[in-house]
Design goal:
Blueprint: E1 2-6, H1 17-32, E2 37-42, E3 72-73, E4 82-86, H2 95-106, E5 111-114, E6 127-130, H3 135-138, H4 153-166, H5 175-189, E7 192-195, H6 198-208, E8 215-217, H7 233-242, E9 249-253, H8 262-275, E10 282-286, H9 293-302, E11 309-313, H10 320-326, E12 329-332, H11 341-349, E13 353-356, H12 361-365, E14 370-372, H13 377-389, H14 391-404, H15 410-423
Parallel strand pairs: 1-2, 1-5, 2-4, 5-6, 6-7, 7-8, 9-10, 9-12, 10-11, 12-13, 13-14
Antiparallel strand pairs: 3-4
Helix pairs in contact: 1-15, 7-10, 8-9, 8-13, 11-14
Length: about 425
């Protein structure tokens, strides 16, 4: 059986939760399945840890014709059942709906698997899509003004005009409308839906009247070779010094954007420092700046705590476990999460967690985190202070986290996903 996988998100250099999910799932499928044939569809040659799936690349011939055999990335691979096809696209947007759709028209696989939301308009009858969450419905205001793929003003204006014409004014070219359309289309046409938590499953059923039997819940995994307890303080400090991190700290990891509730976290941190002057912990924010980052910077300046907050920017994954191991706690204040991969990474590293009590987060952590109301900055401030001050609480959360993390693995995620694909 030939299984096609959209690997475009997994192949990105700067990854968020969805990209890491796609990346690790593809790698794990390569380890556990030698029976099926796989083709990975991308818009550029495989890099960033995926190239070794199709290693020792011997030839890549560029072409703009997305249905030509010259698009194949010829390889000598340790995984003889994996190959990659690069599908070029002349526009800075809609690769899935135009380029991948044309590929499906002329060279469809037996099964198409989309790890990240968006099913191409043209697709095989046997198609499986992972819908991670429907936060764009719950938190409409956090999505509506975002441009698609952060395209330039020229491309956005042109795309907006074309979108309005084609949809008779029903949709505009923004993230919210694109998710709204693509999710509805996916739920109507995909043969099977995978989602990453029972919370997300219930949300999809509630808002789209989808049958429960059509949605399979498969939890995320984590890299157990990378994320683990590190006892070498010298190595930890060596990495921390690279990012200017000195002394005790708490931290957040993820995109620095409005829907992650970073502004409230900063306010809560400022309140905590004022109410508990003996606490000297810095707040470290790890991740790329994204939508509404200017608002985050304004909050930092408003509370005059520039010297107490460290912005590391993007960080290679090899350094991240050291950040977990050096921290007093992970603070995870998100308004809405389909899952929350950093929660697994923290538990695996033995890092105590203080997190929001909303969406999928309580389902993922159960009793292994201190939960708070993400909409109340004063309660968040108290939770941050508590997890810093109370050593007995931290030790209890670490112990419970080690137990909870045993329920998650990339291998289990891949095995359950493969079972869904082979069941069609």
């Amino acid at each position: 059986m030939l299984i096609g996988i959209d690997a475009s998100r997994a192949n990105k250099q700067y990854k968020g939760g969805v990209e890491w999910y796609s990346y690790h799932l593809i790698r794990e499928l390569a380890k556990i399945d030698a029976n099926n044939q796989y083709v990975l569809y991308t818009d550029k040659p495989l890099t960033n840890g995926l190239a070794d799936l199709t290693s020792n690349q011997t030839e890549f011939q560029k072409t703009e014709i997305c249905i030509d055999k010259k698009n194949w990335q010829k390889i000598k691979s340790p995984y003889n059942n994996f190959r990659c096809k690069i599908i070029k696209h002349f526009l800075p947007f809609f690769w899935t709906q135009i380029a991948l759709s044309l590929e499906m028209l002329f060279h469809p696989p037996d099964i198409l698997f989309i790890p990240a939301h968006t099913l191409p308009i043209i697709h095989p009858r046997k198609s499986v899509v992972t819908l991670h969450d429907i936060g764009f419905i719950r938190k409409h205001r956090l999505y509506s003004r975002e441009r698609i793929n952060s395209v330039s003003k020229f491309w956005h204006s042109l795309l907006n005009l074309l979108t309005k014409i084609v949809t008779l004014g029903k949709y505009e070219a923004n993230i919210y409308d694109y998710y709204k359309w693509s999710t509805k289309f996916t739920l109507k046409h995909a043969q099977k839906i995978i989602t990453v938590s029972r919370f997300s499953q219930s949300e999809i059923i509630k808002f789209y009247s989808t049958k429960p039997k059509d949605i399979k819940v498969i939890y995320h995994g984590y890299d157990n070779k990378l994320y683990q307890k590190i006892n070498n303080l010298e190595e930890i400090n060596k990495v921390l010094n690279q990012y200017g991190i000195e002394g005790p700290y708490i931290f957040y990891i993820g995109r620095l954007e409005k829907k992650k509730n970073i502004s409230t976290l900063i306010e809560a941190y400022a309140i905590m420092r004022e109410q508990y002057p003996k606490i000297k912990h810095k707040l470290v924010l790890v991740g790329c700046a994204s939508y509404s980052f200017d608002e985050i910077k304004n909050v930092i300046q408003e509370f005059n705590i520039d010297n107490e907050i460290i912005l590391t920017g993007w960080m290679p994954e090899k350094d991240i476990p050291f950040i977990y191991n050096g921290a007093t706690a992970l603070i995870f204040p998100s308004y809405y999460e389909g899952f929350g991969i950093p929660l697994l990474q923290a538990m695996a590293c033995g890092t105590p967690i203080a997190a929001s009590n909303v969406a999928s987060i309580p389902e993922v952590v159960q009793d292994s985190a201190l939960l708070f109301n993400p909409f109340d900055k004063n309660k968040m401030a108290k939770a941050i202070a508590k997890i810093i001050i109370d050593n007995n609480l931290r030790q209890d959360l670490i112990k419970k986290g080690y137990f909870r993390i045993n329920h998650f693995s990339h291998k289990k995620n891949a095995q359950e996903t493969l079972a869904v694909l082979e069941s069609l």
